[in-house]
TrEMBL record:
EC number: 3.1.3.25
Pfam families on file: Inositol_P (PF00459)
Matching PROSITE patterns: IMP_1, IMP_2
Name under which the protein is recorded: Inositol-1-monophosphatase
Keyword Nucleotidyltransferase: no
Any single biological process term in GO: phosphatidylinositol phosphate biosynthetic process
Reported cofactor(s): Mg(2+)
Length: 287
């Protein structure tokens, strides 16, 4: 075989964003078609940390679609990493210096998917030398596609998104999460819930970190905070929030990067007040 025959055929002329949109929407449609069909429920890090054949199948589909266009790019996908916080931190460390790194959560909100609660999403980000440059989140239940490109804004169905205008916690709708690690991260999130509930208009816990971030970007939530997330929960949504004029940091206010797992994402105006409440309640996860 000569050199030319050995080189894989690469489909050209597709932008990174077009590939991310194609992969997220194709996988999302397939996931939706599998609702109610889960036959085997796998347990990962804890009895609350679920995985199904749909999570694995969707990740395979997304990997194949990405590699068709960009065979030399690296991919960090949730289902390719051992469960637990140490393994995911290690996996990120090993791969984060790659020039182009795709970060994939094939089903964000698996528990919702399993129960038929229509709030789950596909999250795909592309980082260039550690900085997220494309973020796509697709909600198949509502057929909503959220897209952001670094420096070019964030859009839902082609309409530019902007964060909400609340200036005070008392007028804010804030999302929280209940992670699948009952020993370390759950009690810290509970402390945050306890401290925030009396100070905000109300709390929501939808069960998809990626969609919570998309909703902050779209101005439907004033903020979202959760301790103990993984790179694939946050990467795409972080760009959506930033490109919509919001703020995304860790729980002590340090700007977001791929290694951040304790996050606060907000409309910017209530950011300090929110991190202040977490600090006061010793609920930053960094005490
Ligand atoms: C989970 C969801 C959930 C959040 C958990 C995540 P998964 O992701 O985003 O909202 O509270 O911390 O692990 O496991 O459904 O991909
Ligand atoms: Ca997730
Ligand atoms: Ca997932």
């Amino acid at each position: 075989m000569n050199e030319k025959e050995k080189t894989p055929y690469v489909v050209t002329s597709k932008s990174y964003t077009a590939v991310a949109i194609n992969a997220a929407s194709k996988a999302g449609e397939w996931i939706k078609s599998r609702l109610g069909t889960v036959s085997e429920l796998g347990i990962k890090y804890s009895p609350q940390d679920l995985v199904t054949e749909v999570d694995k199948g969707a990740e395979q589909m997304i990997r194949r679609l990405i590699l068709t266009h960009f065979p030399h790019h690296a991919i960090l996908g949730e289902e390719g990493v051992e469960p637990g916080p140490e393994a995911s931190a290690r996996a990120l460390q090993e791969i984060q210096d790659e020039e182009y790194l795709w970060i994939v959560d094939p089903v964000d909100g698996t528990t919702n998917f399993v129960h038929g609660f229509p709030f789950f999403s596909v999250s795909i980000a592309l980082a260039h030398r550690g900085e997220v440059i494309v973020g796509v989140i697709y909600d198949p239940s509502r057929d909503e596609l959220f897209v952001a490109e670094k420096g070019k804004g964030a859009y839902v169905h082609g309409n530019r998104m902007g964060v909400s205008g609340e200036q005070e916690l008392a007028h804010s709708l804030v999302a929280v999460g209940f992670p699948a690690d009952p020993n370390y991260t759950l009690p810290i999130n509970m402390a945050a819930v306890q401290a925030l509930a009396p100070q905000v208009r109300n709390l929501r816990a939808g069960g998809s970190a990626a969609l919570h971030l998309a909703y902050v970007a779209a101005g439907r939530l004033s903020a979202y905070t959760e301790i103990g997330l993984k790179p694939w929960d946050i990467a795409a949504g972080a760009l959506l929030v930033a490109e919509s004029g919001g703020t995304i940091t860790d729980t002590v206010g340090t700007p977001y990067d791929l290694s951040v797992s304790h996050i606060v994402a907000s409309n910017g105006k209530i950011h300090e007040a929110l991190t202040g409440v977490l600090k006061e309640a010793k609920a930053t996860g960094m005490e």
